[in-house]
Amino acid sequence: MAAHTSQSVAKAAGDDVEHGDVARGPSRRTDSGNRTGGRGGLRRALATHWYAWAMVTPVVLVLGVIIGWPLVRGVYLSLTDANERNVSRTIGVRHIEATYEFVGLDNYAAVLSDPVFLQRLVWTVVWTVACVSITFTLGLALATMLNRDFKGRAAYRMALILPWAVPGFVSVFAWRFLFNRDNGILNKILDGGGISAVPWLDDPTWAKFAVITVNVWLGVPFMMVALLGGMQSIPGELYEAAEMDGARPWQRFRHITLPGLRAVSMTVILLSTIWTFNMFPVIFLLTRGGPGDSTEILVTQAFREAFITSPRDFAASATWGVLILALLMIFALVYRRSLRKQGEVW
User: Fold this and answer.
1) 317 and 305 in contact (C-beta within 8 Å)?
2) Partners of 95 in the β-ladder
3) pTM of this prediction?
4) By the 8 A CB rule, do 291 and 207 touch?
5) How far is CA 214 from the centre of its chain?
6) Alpha-carbon distance 238 to 247, whole Å?
7) If you ran DSSP here, which 8-state letter would residue 291 be given?
8) Which of 113, 116, 154, 297 is deepest in the core (most CB within 10 A)?
């Protein structure tokens, strides 16, 4: 009886396999269930988080209009020969249509083969590395000082944050007055000490020193505040245990403070690098890229192509802008990869 029942079950199973019912039936149900579940999950997410979507959507639209469209337009112009003579324009009541043409990667080949690009790139890298390294060092030193308890600490904090509160162009104009060769305060002080006037903004070397000084002045408060916040998040018990073990101040700083600031340091260095690489106001307002073109960086060169040279070359300016974006993206990717190798998640 048992053998007869087993044979019947086996035969039924064999018939199902033969007709593909067992193989195909559950598969169809699973696939349709997944598709239905996916659509249902999306509906549930929209229904549950509709307020968040409503808040995010306007921001996405604004960013798309302000950043996305100009970026796409700039990439397109970099592939053309657009300049002020062949773009669409209106003169009085007469409208002239655009006549510029698509030229592919010719603009990129022209810019990359131009010695000017290498000169601007080298000085931009030097300017960025110098500013970021000095700013980080000074910010770390000031944050270490302000992380201790002493009389008048709040007043010192406010004084050191003040350059950050002043609008950038106001600070640059104030420094321009200080660097004035004939009537500047700095040269007046030097003259009182019997030292001849320094051509701060008239000599290429001194002009580079001047722009780095001003940018460091503007960047130290942000670096100091960020690092100070990171220091205050380090548990005090670590310092107490290290002090009980006989660790000296330098040893506590090296083995507790610096490792504790690693995540904050990596973030502020990345942000400071991107900001400095694109720091147009300091260069333009202080030296206009001069004397000559000694302090021109990549972004001021892009500005010069679009608004100063004649005829204004919009395609070349867009090409410089796209190359700047590409360089920063490459730097960010390499930086992120190096952080991951060190075990940092970013």
Assistant:
1) yes
2) 90
3) 0.80
4) yes
5) 20
6) 11
7) S
8) 297
How far apart, in whole angstroms, are the C-alpha atoms of residue 92 and residue 89? 10
Question: What is the Cα–Cα distance from 232 to 257, expressed in whole angstroms?
Answer: 10
How far is the C-alpha of 254 from the C-alpha of 265, rounded, in Å? 14
DSSP assignment letter at 95: E
In the chain, DSSP finds a helix count (H) and a strand count (E) of 17, 2
54: left (phi over 0), alpha (psi -120 to 50) or beta: alpha
Cis peptide before 199 (omega within 30 of 0): no
CA distance 304 to 10: 85
- The count of C-alpha atoms lying within 13 angstroms of the C-alpha of 114, restricted to the half-sphere facing its C-beta, is 14
42 C-beta neighbours (distance < 10 Å), count:
10
Phi, psi (5° rounding) for residue 202?
-110, -10
Burial of 107: CB neighbours in 10 Å, binned 0-12, 13-18, 19+: buried
* Identity of the amino acid at 200: W
| Residue 151 near residue 206 (C-beta atoms within 8 A) | no
pLDDT, one tens digit per residue, over 153-162 is: 778 878 888 8
